[in-house]
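Homework help board

Subject: predicted structure for assignment chain

Our instructor gave us this sequence and asked us to write out the predicted structure in token form, then describe one feature. I got the tokens but I'm not sure how to describe them. Can anyone check?
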Amino acid sequence: QVQLVESGGGLVQPGGSLRLSCAASGSIIRISAMGWYRQAPGKERELVAFIDNGGRTNYADSVKGRFAISRGFGMSLVYLQMNSLKAEDTAVYYCNAKYSPPYGPDAYYWGQGTPVTVSS
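My token output:
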């Protein structure tokens, strides 16, 4: 099992920057990928960025060039650096871990979410 704790959300002005953190504990050696998702009021939860255990990354088109996902210590610490923030980025941001055991199906774990508000 994997436990995820997020931090770093808050209020920021348009054009500003914010850095989110996700700390994973438990069976982290079996985490094959980590991702950041966000959910705005009245909208579905959407993928923002992910990074796999080989360091490969992918981003949603809406954040490409502005956001960067990175690892701080293997797969136990994952960050999301958000630059040039827009009002449309306002959402609750969730950390997600893909857990891949040697046998059996993959499992997905979620953090509690950290709110990000971009407003002047």
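Reply (TA_rk): Your tokens look well-formed. For the description, you could write something like this. The longest strand covers residues 18-26. That's the kind of observation they're looking for.
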